[in-house]
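The pair is quoted verbatim as follows:
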Amino acid sequence: MAKLRYEAAPDVEALARDIVEALGLDWIDLSRVAFVRSRGSRSQAYARIWGLPRVFQEAFGLDPLYVVEVIAERFDGLGDADKARVVIHELLHIPRSFSGGLRPHGRLVNGRVVEELYRRYASLRGL
């Protein structure tokens, strides 16, 4: 069984920065969001987002932090448009309160909202 490995994902970070800027997602403090690529995962997901639980924030005196993990085996083969959709989806899980918690799938995080935001992003960037 392959060992799970993580590495920095500067390409994903650059895409997220562009998306946040273009769409005005100004509640997302990208200085407190890390982007990693995992290899060796058996997950069927393209990406995941992790929030630092409040108990850790309080215990260690940390500000809220997030990690967006893309699964190399699934994400890297996507076209640019689908990569953008995946990153938009993960960013939507970050609540406006930027508390370290995560928004669940539902009214604010779903395929319709992702597609609407992707179309706006693509239009703004001439894609």
About this structure: The helical segments are 10-23, 54-60, 72-75, 80-92, 111-125. The first strand starts at residue 5 and ends at 8.
